[in-house]
Write a structure and sequence with these properties.
Elements (H helix, E strand, L loop, with lengths): L4 H12 L13 H11 L3 E4 L13 E4 L16 E6 L9 E5 H14 L9 E4 L7 H12 L2 E4 L8 H10 L2
Parallel strand pairs: 1-2, 5-6
Antiparallel strand pairs: 3-4
Length: 172
Amino acid sequence: MDRSLEMVCGILAILSVGAVYCPLNPEDPPARICSLISETRGRFVLLNGSTRDRFPASAIDILLLTNNNTIASKPVCEMDAAYILCTSGTTGRQKAIVHTNRSLSASIDALIQWDLEVYTSQDQVLQVASCSWAMHLLEMFPPLLLGSTLILLRPGGNLDMIYFTRVLMEQQ
């Protein structure tokens, strides 16, 4: 899913029911997407209207954000998987790396402690990283937890310098 309010809500919903979040880049070729879904044994793909046609309908269930879908939750334990990130595959086949709730929490806590003098509830934080990169979680969670404003660029907005500059100027 592209950077959006739906993406943020989707990540929070996935984690809150004890499910595992695995970001997929809607710009990737269909073969790579299918391979990653197979590698991670994904059962569901959470999509919005703008990304629905980019994902192949295969042995997965597509959950559209416009539907009222119910997924059973389970208790969330610190050593359970929280999210899976996939390597780029530039040195061979891509690999799925599993991160636990504990590691996610520790990473966010460390970043908040390190940036405590940087972030405040009055700040506006720009999310630049693609949603399929690990960094997007670290750009997203600290502002949400500290009460800062999270600014989500439109898809491709981090590469459009005119748009990027305009957003920076408007958000100062």
